[in-house]
Design brief:
The structure holds two protein chains of two kinds. By secondary structure, chain A is of the alpha/beta class. In chain A, 52% of the residues lie in helices and 12% in strands. Chain A has helices at 15-18, 25-35, 69-80, 97-108, 120-133, 139-158, 168-179, 195-206, 219-229, 239-245, 262-271, 303-319, 321-341, 344-366, 375-398, 405-418; strands spanning 3-9, 42-47, 51-57, 92-95, 187-191, 211-215, 232-234, 248-251, 277-281, 298-302. The two termini of chain A are 18 Å apart.
Amino acid sequence: MNLVAVGINHRTAPLEVREKLWMSSDEIRTAVAAMKGHPFTECFIVSTCNRTELYGLYSGSSDDAPPDIDELKDQLIKVKAPGGPVKREHLYHMISSNAIRHLFKVASGIDSMVIGDIQILSQIKDDFNIAYEEKAAGPLLHRLLQSTYHVGKRTRTETTITEGAVSVSYAAVELANKIFSDLSKKTALLIGAGETGELTAKHLVGRGIGSIFVANRTKAKAEEVVAALGGKAVDFDSLHQMLNQVDIVVSSITSDKFVVTKSDVQRAMKERSNKPLFIIDIGVPRNIDPGANDIENVFLHDMDGISAIIDRNVQKRRAEIPRVNEIVLEELTEFHNWYNSLQVNPTIHDLRTHFEQVRQEEVEKNINRFAAEDRELVDLVTKRIVNKLLHLPTTNLKNGNEETEEEKHKKLHIVRSLFGLHKHPSPKE
Amino acid sequence: MKILVDAFTIALPVLYFGTVWAYAKAFFKDSPLAKRVKTPLLLLTLAIHLAYLLLRTVLFNHPPITTIFEIMSIISFSITAAYTVIEFQTKVKNTGYFILILAFIFQTFSSFFIEDLSEVKPILRSYLLGIHVSSALLGYAAIAISAVYGFLYLMLYHHIKSNRFGVIYNKLPNLETLEKMSMLSIIVGFTFLTIAIAVGLFWLPRAFEHFSYFDPKLIGTVFIWAMYGIGLGAKRTIGWQGRKIMILSIIAFAVSFFSLTIINVYFSAFHKFY
């Protein structure tokens, strides 16, 4: 397949370089519109904070040389960051099957910076739609994208590569779910308004936490967080009373001494009649006296504990890579089969085989009705009929030079579906 | 019918082994096949076990409570039945291994040593006695299960506290659910013990000449029943939670187990039939 991919990602360039190539929807729209027709018959661009990739189909037969890769790289750089830090060396390229395989791997999450992160799939979908609207992407890329979604979907359902929290905020919520059975009946307290703490609180809200309180030194900031999350801002001084009421505490405040001491927690536990209390301390230096973990029914976890969960989950995700690769290979073969079925010669071959099969079956079924001396003649005549019937369709399929690639594919597709020639041997067979 | 009973005697340990194996494979190895077959296998085993007990009752013309090995089969059945109820009630499907292994051990012992007795003391042919014994055993099976869940709770509790995130952390349900399952088992157990005691007190004095309210087994069971009753009451009034109540459930079970064993072996007056 005449597909070429050119791109930049976290493996080939640092953030400050690859962010220069990040494109907004409008920029993608302009770029694909400019490349449509020349150098590509079909193309689309995917752009996220970690990668920008251009996929293009060039015209000609599959033996033709692809467009000049260096020129393509320059073109991509020129769109966004001419004269900047982005150099040709930061970009990679792939051709034909390698480009398809790469796209499938991106969709499956094994090429992501955080392994198994397949949020990229929806980004691919959105960016592809832009190309489709601009008529830069046609039927071939459309089919390729369908296969790409399929890879993403299968990865999600058939493997566990997307499972297990791999960020601090998710790991904290995962831990809360191992202690409590129903978060909607629980309440949480967020101490401080740091980014990670806020993100954790957001995930707790996402998992349906009953209610959430925010305590911060400057109450205005707490109210800002509450405005975004819902919940209630409380005075920083009332923090210790709050420990009696809530089930989950998320603390991420900058402080050189403990904000909550062991005796604070002890007192609170007595007043809450020993109901389990889960505390996540993501402050550095730590906000909560680590000794509090010795108290019964108190589960105190700091960054070390959370990191242990993340490490374990990352390992588990890594272990799934071979299974994901199998899916990628299967989908690649499937796509190749489809693509090959669009070629003229295999279609003619399949069509003839199909007719010959029908002829043979009918002759065999009825041959005994004929006298022995006529049987050879029956065989000959039926063969001639089939050949005559197929002569014109064969010639028409072969002489499609003046048609565009798209028309040719459409025609082949119709013939195949009309005669039920869907099963086509893979290239390996 | 005799052939069927003999066949089930052999088949039951095999079925229990298969079920326990499937639950273990599903828990420790995440095997998709094991996950699919474990609950159907459990239901099949339970059904055959029930059929086995009924067949024995009809064939030998007495409820299977006349020897220690018949009792063991009932204990095994009680554990499996109680677990099945809990699995369907709580929808937590992956703790079966820890409980069904007990059922497997009891049934295997039973199958090896069980005898076919048609001649038994007339008193043992009573179906009221059948209810008395079955509910007592169901009660004990349920409190045994509560102890298993208490034990699982403590394991998970310590794993979470000490940042160990292995199989126990991944596969067990959350602490609150384990506590709930343990408490549910205690309530079921307490209910059955209440029935056993009620039937016993109502019927036993009429059936036995030598009946005595000072019988050790009677006193022992009433003591255990009272201990759980007080515990349940205390949980409600004082609001005991988490680790403490789970440790209590294990201690209570240990006390029950030892007191019953000691009473059965050393003291038993009219309350002993074999």
